[in-house]
Amino acid sequence: xxxxxxxxSTIIPxxxxxxxxxxxxxxxxxxxxxxxxxxxxxxxGVEHAQLTYxxxxxxxxxxxxxxxxxxxxxxxxxxGRETQCACVTVINCKSHYQQALAAGATIVxxxxxKDYGGAGYSCRDPEGHLWYFGSYDPxxxx
Length: 142
Description:
Elements lengths: L13 E4 L2 H12 L2 E7 L5 E8 L2 E7 L23 E4 L3 H10 L3 E8 L5 E6 L5 E5 L8
Parallel strand pairs: 1-4, 5-8
Antiparallel strand pairs: 2-3, 3-4, 6-7, 7-8
């Protein structure tokens, strides 16, 4: 049985945002994601969205008091902490860092060259979710 997909991710992080429309705009502007699909509910809120970056994807929707939503805490609910962090491989990390900074991302760990290769930085989006962006690609280590 094959576990790979020829044209996409096999692991897709799922996130919830209080203002999903604003989050989508920020993620596209600051981090370079592209809208793949956005499905709205009858109230005009985001029921489900898919954003892509290269061959990767994230899925997101609005915070809801449903069964799945009861399992997810927002960073602001738990003192700004996260239980996981999306790691995104980017080609030009320094340029990506400057774009995120210019768009208002809160930098947590400044851009730095890494001893193991590549460079990286971490930041928070406007709702406090933690992101790591780096040029090190573990699939292409020589």
